[in-house]
Amino acid sequence: MSYCSFSNGEEYKNHFQPGIYVCSECGHELFSSTSKFEHSSPWPAFSETIHGDSVSKHPEAWGPVKVCCGKCGNGLGHEFLYDGPRDGLSRF
């Protein structure tokens, strides 16, 4: 499955079958379906990455943290701190 390709709606927002979400550019493993949860945003939402090096994080001045593929640097969106499915978890 590719992640973060947005064209006329996000095709994986309501996709909850078991599997691994990978970078659409290089195929690097990013998120597991076990960390995916329903959220009001128009994109898929995950509470954690699959590996420690799945993503690189770049703080931005206005709050969220910019998230890129840990292997190729492809932009994946943002990490919203404390907006996950349970207290203390983030939303990617």
From TrEMBL:
User: Organism source for this protein?
Assistant: Seriola lalandi dorsalis
**Stretches assigned to coiled coil:** none
The protein here is known as Methionine sulfoxide reductase B1
- Gene3D superfamilies this protein is in? Peptide methionine sulfoxide reductase
As for what it does, the entry says: Methionine-sulfoxide reductase that specifically reduces methionine (R)-sulfoxide back to methionine. While in many cases, methionine oxidation is the result of random oxidation following oxidative stress, methionine oxidation is also a post-translational modification that takes place on specific residue. Acts as a regulator of actin assembly by reducing methionine (R)-sulfoxide mediated by MICALs (MICAL1, MICAL2 or MICAL3) on actin, thereby promoting filament repolymerization. Plays a role in innate immunity by reducing oxidized actin, leading to actin repolymerization in macrophages.
GO MF terms on file?
L-methionine-(R)-S-oxide reductase activity; metal ion binding; peptide-methionine (R)-S-oxide reductase activity
Alphabetical list of InterPro entries matching this protein: Met_Sox_Rdtase_MsrB_dom, MsrB_Met_sulfoxide_reductase, Mss4-like_sf
This enzyme catalyses: [thioredoxin]-disulfide + L-methionine + H2O = L-methionine (R)-S-oxide + [thioredoxin]-dithiol; L-methionyl-[protein] + [thioredoxin]-disulfide + H2O = L-methionyl-(R)-S-oxide-[protein] + [thioredoxin]-dithiol
Question: Which keywords label this protein?
Answer: Cytoplasm, Cytoskeleton, Immunity, Innate immunity, Metal-binding, Nucleus, Oxidoreductase, Selenocysteine, Zinc
Question: Where in the cell is the protein located?
Answer: Cytoplasm, Cytoskeleton; Nucleus
Family, per entry: Belongs to the MsrB Met sulfoxide reductase family.
State the GO CC annotations: cytoskeleton; nucleus
The biological process GO terms on file are:
innate immune response; protein repair
Please report the stretch or stretches of sequence annotated as the MsrB domain: 1-92
Cofactor(s) annotated in UniProt: Zn(2+)
